[in-house]
Amino acid sequence: MTSINQAVAPEEHHPQRGRRQDDDVERDASENTPLLPPTAQANDDRSQPRRETSARRSLLTSLQSPSGSNGNGKSSKRRWPSLIALAGLCVLVILIIVFAFLAPSTVEQYGQEAAVFEPTSLSIDSFTASGVRARIQGDFTLDAQRVRTKSVRNLGRFFTGLAKEAESGASEVEVSLPEYGNVVLGTAQVPGVKVDLRDGHRTHVDVLSDLHAGDVDGIRRIANDWIDGRLGQLRVLGKANVPLKSGIVSLGQQLIRHELLFANKDIPSVPAYDIKKLMFREIELPMGGKGMAADASVIVENPYPVELTVPPLAFAALVDNCHEDEPYIKLADVETHELRVQPNQEVEVNVTAVVHQLPDPLTQECPGSGQSPLDLILGKYIHGKDTTIYIRGSSAPQLHTPDWITTLLHSITAPVPLPGRTFGHLVKDFDLADTHFTLPSPFADENSPESNPRISANIQATVALPEEMNFNISISRVRANADVFYKARKLGELDLHKWQHANSTRIPASKHEGPTLAVSSRVENAPLKITDQDVFADVVQALVFGRKGVLMHVKADVDVELTTALGDMAVRGVPAEGEVPVKPISPPDGGRPGHGGTNNTNPLLNSLHPTVSNLTILTTTPSSLTLSALLNLTNPTPYAATIPYFNIHLLANHTLLAHATVENLTVNPGFNAFLPVTAVWHPLSLGGGHPAAHVGSEWLSQFISGYNTTLTLQTHRASFPGQPELGESFARFAVEIPTPRLDGGPSDDDGDGDNDGDDDGEEKPPHFLKSATMHLITSTAEVTVLSPLHHNTLIVTSLDAEAFLPHPPPTTTSRQTTTTFEDSEDEPIARIHYPTPFALPPNKHQNPSNPDDEEEGTTSPPLPVSWSPRGVGYDAVRKALGGKLKVRASARVGVRIGLWNEEVWVRVGGVGAGVRL
């Protein structure tokens, strides 16, 4: 303004010189106009002439005048060039501010918010020594509706509409991660791209770019955090110096920085996969020997528009060691084939894993666990639980695979969850042969295995091999812990924890079923722990009284020792489940009735055919006998049993008379001879007093008279000392059996229970009274008696007897034949009363090895006889003189064995009595 005032002041007196001076002033103003305001200039230079002040005031007055005149009222048209210049300068300043400062920042913000790039395809054209050559295709659009601020949206739309399009030159993009110490993920060489900047206009972009890997160690850290799930969020920073131009206008080098935040769901997860096929096979190793290979086909989801061809890769399959802080154990070498990845399509990955040998740490038991790492892996897998296998890139260079990929993959360990697989019912058939049962030992502790019943048997099973196992396999040893069920109720636990030798034979697949393995093993003395006595009682009842057998359900975890191409290995906890049919103890034909025509309907008991021999009295008291005998019986079942100790009660008419004991006894299928038995006869004490003693005397009388007697057998708590519950369980099945006959014992020949022997008229020797000889002149009789004892003397303390004619009476008489009569009165033909004791020595003539040998018996001293003086009886005796007369006898006999005394009655029929003078 000072220069302008200087140019105006002289013009008032010299117009023309003023115009020349005006030009000079304008020129001088452009060169010498001071930067400070006039007031500041005056303060600094007091010598400025006063005419400058008046000229400045005059110009300001003219500019402020409404009429545009000067102070004298005259028009000043010569002022317009200055006004136009000043206005143009102001507009230029505004445009410079808008385009140089406001427009770039506004357009930048607009571009960041409005830019939309939708990738349609990402393909790897090829792998290079330092990275990959990638082709990126997509659609670029500026969408103004995405811009939140209205002023930015409007200005951005205006400026990009003016520019219409922009083109970038070739540049290098660097991608880094600020939160990981600005580690460089990689760089990309991006060629020039031209895009349409107008709102809503779509530009298709097709770029071929060289991508170079960055810091491998940094990439490894990021990859491990992502795999381990520790990558909560990720900030990615991209930087590039990009040359830009719009049309012919060059915008120079522009530094472009763009930051993306990936968090939570924005971070891509590990792709889902499914194992479509898994097959194990045996292979020949290049260096000799055999190994195992696993071929797998894995379907992997690919939800991304990515297309590439992955070269063959090599990995190492690792598994957990005993503890997490210990290094992984290498299990196999894994190779993948060349893989073609199509955009947004599932990818089928074919993998081959080769196991050369099983490393020692894999099969050694972990301290304190009893299981090896291999046991833990296989245990989870075969029980349907997920297990984890770790995959790490191989360090060995691969053909056609760049080194940077090998280095990167070797630095990353990725866990791969392997879904478990349940194989269903592997055991198809399960059978027990040559079964041997051992009852509890009486000396075993209550909680020891010997206190339980034990089973020995040949186990024969058919195992269905999974389709995946396409290789030779054999089973050398097995062991198991099995739960046994009956009708869905648990019976007990079968303890097979000891290794048992086994043999196996592979059976090829047929049209109807896959390959199987026939396994046989011998189990010795496996304890069966009864956990539910009621269920066990039901099983015993079904086996003893049923005829169809029972079906037991077995669930077991089996440990199997396998022999494979990799050597011997143990697979523990293999689930096995199957049905075990148990044949009925009763014979299928029901057996034949026992001696004496018993009415017992149990076919098993009817088939035993028990007989007693070699009866020996061990000790005596005034009211008890302890005796031993040899028992012969037939076992109609296919099962054998060993009985270390067993005690059972003997009852008659619901009265306890005795108890019998067997020890160290083995019963085999079929006929069993000379089984030692010990019994204690003590009704007075066991049965509860004199009523029981009377029942015992009555039973003995019937027994020695040859009647069809029975005994009830019932277990009790002391039957199995180590398992009192087992004895109580069996006590529910008190069974009644025919009393075993003594050697040479009689039978009720006519089946009417009176033992009169009148069914066929033949003489059959009685058990106790064999024969008699009557002397008419001396009125005496000599009786031949068969003592049931072979080692003890039996004392007859008293004898009161009567003889009767049999029914029907004899009809003919002959010295050489037996006489019978048509009719007979029920009165004695002779009586004997003999109070004097006499001894019956042991029966020494029995041959235990041949029970059919004839026994001679012992003849009594002459016994006084009182004859009936009249009647048919006397006539029958007289007519039978010199021959034999068949008579019936009834007697009360006092007997003593040692300290034991008892009085019994005897009734026998069909006794052959010789008649002599």
From TrEMBL:
List, for all copies, the residue spans of the domain called Tag1 C-terminal.
Answer: 469-583
Q: Which residues form the Tag1-like fourth Ig-like domain?
A: 609-726
* Domain of life, source organism: Eukaryota
- Residue stretches of biased makeup (Acidic residues): 746-762
Parts of the chain that traverse the membrane: 83-103
| This protein's name | Pre-rrna processing protein
Q: Keyword annotations for this protein?
A: Membrane, Transmembrane, Transmembrane helix
A GO-annotated cellular component? fungal-type vacuole membrane
Q: Which InterPro entries match?
A: Ig_Tag1-like_4th, Ig_Tag1-like_5th, Tag1, Tag1_C
Q: Which ranges carry the Tag1-like fifth Ig-like domain?
A: 762-807, 829-905
Q: Please note every region of biased composition (Basic and acidic residues).
A: 10-30, 43-55
- Looking at the record, which segments are called Disordered? 1-77, 577-603, 738-767, 805-869
Instruction: Specify the species.
Output: Salinomyces thailandicus
Keyword Transmembrane helix listed: yes
